[in-house]
Design brief:
By secondary structure, the chain is α/β, with parallel strands linked by helices. It folds into 2 domains: 80 residues, Orthogonal Bundle (Arc Repressor Mutant, subunit A), CATH 1.10.10; 159 residues, Rossmann fold. It is built from 15 helices and 5 strands. It has a 5-stranded parallel sheet, with helices on both faces. Helix 2 crosses helix 5, helix 7 packs across helix 13 and helix 9 packs parallel to helix 13. It starts with a helix and ends with a helix.
Length: 286
Amino acid sequence: MEENIILQIKSALHSLSKAERKIGEYILQHAVEIVNYNTSELAQKAGVSSATIVRFCRSIGLSGFSQLKIRLYADASGVDEDLYTDITPNENVAMIAEKLALRFNHSISQTVNQLDQSLMENVSKIIDSSTTIYVYGLGASHIVAEDFTQKFSRIGKTVVNMLDHHLLSSSFIGTDEKSVFLAISNSGETNEVIKLTEIAKQKKIRTIGISQYENSTLAKLVDYPIIHHGGEAVMLRSAATTSLISQLFTIDVLYYAFVNKNLKKVLRVLKESKINIQTFFRKENS
């Protein structure tokens, strides 16, 4: 799934070398004009070497300068440059909506490209074989934990989700080896999440982590690290918003991967659940 090149460059800036970051920042400021440059012209205008441009393209996952120009032409030509900035004061709702939609689409595209298909298949099988799923997330990640709980509880899985990390760690006692702990942290460094994961591993509980960073403490600690895209750094909260969207999207992929392998059983459980609701709660709604 192809990503938006402008946001792709913004996301990569922090990980580039000083010279590569210089060319990246120049491209962001002159995206439309660059489609008419050759390598030498861009190098001269940006104050870098032609070799730096080649390295820059490879660092952001492109084959070369020609591909960069094609992507810039597709994503930058005829587009309001303000769309690629953070939310600013006194903007109208239409512009805010366009900016967020652009970032959401980009974040989901990058997450699609980052998700390890075989890993997601394995995690789906682990969830299927589990007797109990413990799940924990703090702050915005708790919203994701709630979404996971709602989805998988409705289709018959036993899910334990608590905000009180002391109480959740106590519930690990006496659990069997088929249980699994799902830890959710965008940074992968949330102290409570790390401690709960360590306790789960001590209790021989299988561990799954959902995080933005593959080198985070959580990703290195868990048995099955799921990595998603998180959004580029911005002044307001749109990066936090896009990381939340990426996490929710990751849960959706995991959910549908599970449903796909257990379709008959899931449909039966959902049908029984609907009958129960109609039978026992009809009077309350009338």
